[in-house]
UniProtKB/TrEMBL annotation:
Location within or outside the cell: Cytoplasm
Gene Ontology CC terms, in alphabetical order: cytoplasm
Species, as recorded: Campylorhamphus procurvoides
Main localization, broad class: cytoplasm
Positions of the UniProt region annotated as Disordered: 138-197
Chain intervals with Basic and acidic residues compositional bias: 146-157, 168-181
Enzyme Commission numbers on file: 3.1.1.96
InterPro entries (alphabetical): Daa-tRNA_deacyls_DTD, DTD-like_sf
Name this protein carries in UniProt: D-aminoacyl-tRNA deacylase
Similarity field: Belongs to the DTD family.
GO molecular function, one term: tRNA binding
């Protein structure tokens, strides 16, 4: 894999892993450490006897090429990509450099290469297999579930809010019904409003 910038090749590796790193607004040191561990320990290479999925990049002493890739944080709005979940450039550059530093510290600095942050790069990947594996930090996988729980709670709150006024207005109308028959239309109005979605 190689990553040329403006016609100049700034990084290349032989056999190993090409890591496209998308940094989210919500990512912290915890996610960073998890990703470093996962990348270095992921068993995607064959062993000496040719057995598949048994050796990590560290086991094989292969290289790692990292490329910052904010487009991995894409959320589609209709047919238009939206990147509001990507960490802003200034923060992301600091996070990315910290990620590289930790990767080098946990492995061998000379075996970890990187592209140029924020530059337009033509990344040439000769994908072996081809094998592409998507890794997500634990926080990222838990979040959607928490969001749906929160959404359900919110819906429940909204439902209870819509019920409360109709109940209280019915109570207010009830005494009037005894004295004034014309008030019954008001009570009917409350009932029909509850039937609306």
């Amino acid at each position: 894999s190689s990553s040329p910038v403006g016609g100049e090749q700034i990084s290349s590796i032989g056999r190993g892993l090409c890591v496209l790193l998308g940094i989210s607004l919500e990512d912290t040191q915890r996610e960073l450490e998890h990703m470093v561990r996962k990348i270095l320990n992921l068993r995607v290479f064959e062993d000496e006897s040719g057995k598949q999925w048994s050796k990590s990049v560290m086991d094989k002493q292969y290289e790692v090429l990292c490329v910052s890739q904010f487009t991995l944080q894409c959320i589609l709005k209709g047919n238009k990509p939206d990147y509001h979940m990507a960490m802003p450039t200034d923060q992301a550059e600091c996070f990315y450099n910290n990620f590289l530093e930790q990767l080098r510290r946990a492995y061998k600095p000379e075996l970890v290469k990187d592209g140029k942050f924020g530059a337009y790069m033509q990344v040439h990947i000769q994908n072996d297999g081809p094998v592409t594996i998507e890794l997500e930090s634990p926080a990222a996988t838990v979040d959607p579930k928490q969001l749906t729980k929160l959404e359900k709670q919110q819906q429940r709150k909204e439902k209870s809010r819509t019920k409360v006024p109709s109940e209280s207005s019915r109570e207010r109308n009830a005494p009037r019904n005894k004295d004034d028959p014309s008030a019954s239309s008001g009570a009917e109005g409350d009932v029909s409003s509850e039937r609306e979605p």
